[in-house]
Amino acid sequence: MGGNGPKMNMPKFNMNWIYFIVIAVLIGLYMTGGTTETETRKQVAYSKFKDMVTAGYVNKIVINKNQNELRLYVKPEKVREVFKQSVQQTGSDPFVTVEIGSVEQVEQFISQMRAEQKFTGEFSYENRNSNEVMNFLLYNILPIVAIVAVWIFFMRRIGGGGMGSGIFSVGKSKAKMYENGGNLNITFKDVAGQAGAKQEMQEIVDFLKNPQKYTELGGKIPKGALLVGPPGTGKTLMAKAVAGEAGVPFFSMSGSDFVEMFVGVGASRVRDLFQQAKSKAPCIIFIDEIDAVGRARSKNPAMGGNDERENTLNALLTEMDGFGTNSGIITLAATNRADMLDSALLRAGRFDRQIHVDLPDLNERREVFNVHLKPLKLDETVDIDFLARQTPGFSGADIANVCNEAALIAARHNREKVGKQDFLDAVDRIIGGLEKKTKVMTEAEKRSIAIHEAGHATISWFTEFANPLVKVSIVPRGRALGAAWYLPEERVLQTKQAMLDEMCSLLGGRAAEELFIGQISTGAMNDLERTTKQAYGMIAFAGMSDRLPNICYYNNQEYQFQRPYSEQTAKLMDDEVLKMINEQYDRAKKILTEHKDGHAQLAQLLIDREVIFADDVEKIFGPRPWTSRAEELMEAQMRADAERMAEERAKELEAEEAKTEEERRSE
Fold this sequence. Notes:
alpha/beta
């Protein structure tokens, strides 16, 4: 027959049918116990009841007073005469039911039969009422319904969908598929900065669009690329941009979606994912946070012999480059823990390329700001170059947060546009936390904090490689009682002298407390922690020690239970760290002693104004002996901050005068 004949609309098979049939059979067997009640009971008249008792057919009589009914249980040898069936067919206790008019009349009849020795069985009463059906449902049917409901609930949770999927879909991939990556509406134009990473990803797009260009020369399309970088740098966005540029199907899945409590589920999902991808080739598979499933097997602390994560990783290794072929499938993955991944996963043939998506530098931060500033209403005071310099070490996500926080601050102050000061306040808010102007401090505490922060500012002013000072505040912010803001220069390499200058600046607060207060406090805990970590890093990792020169003891092997050096070397490290810190501490005290008058003026200015800027420090100490390329930007910021502080102070005075005038009028 041809293909144009009528089509039979056959109903689709549904597992619900089997479930319901099994449940119905179980309920029926449970309620009947394998027999039916109609085979073991029979309704007779009262006269027939008398005849049966008189003839000696009765084994037991039970009267229900509430329903005026009795049950007459027949002796086994008389069952065939009454029910016309054998005992095997009727069961062990067949009975007949009789409607009665008066219980007293039945009692008299039974007494008479006992006297005549025609009835010698049991005679009893029961009080069954109209709630019997409800009780039967409550104690017999309801537990079954509850068990079935719980079972259905777990089947749906296991299957991740409706009851039709059930346990049979537990091994299906949870990847979200975009039939056309262009539907994501994300291209390389939406990824600011990261020029090197975009160039390598652009080649992957070219592979997908024009593979013959590369295969004609004998080359092979890369099977995978691993995006490595700190959190918030745009790894996931980069993968979406590749799909958007190539316009091919895009499968997106998280590494944690493979791992389940059931053994073998993760491996099954891996196989299902690649099976779907083969049917859509050429396509892209993107696995975010692949370290959740790709952790090195030797580093896995699980002690079980059949670890689900290892099974999933083995399946992933086989699918990416095993006995079969995956032509046209490019696997992208992202992680910020590349050191934790299994070496078999990183080898060429699986992830042929490792693309580093690092924190943006100065020019890249400018590009990121240009992207995130587009939806904001800005005034003429906003300088993108200055903002880029004010945010060293910020990721793309951090810069997006700064822009959003600046808009919120401007709206909080009822401004029509977002200004430069709003961005500076947003940076301060993100780095230091929210200002706590209501925190109560004693005069002694305030003076101690001012001396401490003035010590940091003084040391940074007179050390060559210390970061240029922006402002100093003794207003509590976050968990800190005071803070100093610097404008660090971005250096690719750090020299030993620059690190020592930074260490000396960190110790300036504790040194000022000892010199000018006479006792030390817990305010330097964070400074001491940073100083100690930096000293150990210089000695153990960078080989900057006099007694342990040019030696690096860095070891990235986690779960290793021994150090790569002896106890004598550890003692030597401790001695060198203590020596280095003490030398810089003595150096800080020497600088503070030489400039104690200027330090005292700086501390008093902090007590009076709570916030001071670099120009205030310059008025006290004179121009900084070392110039910096960031000084012009700092001067502009200081002037703007000074104007803002003056405006805010003027508003506070006006508010106080208005309040005083109102109080006078009320009196």
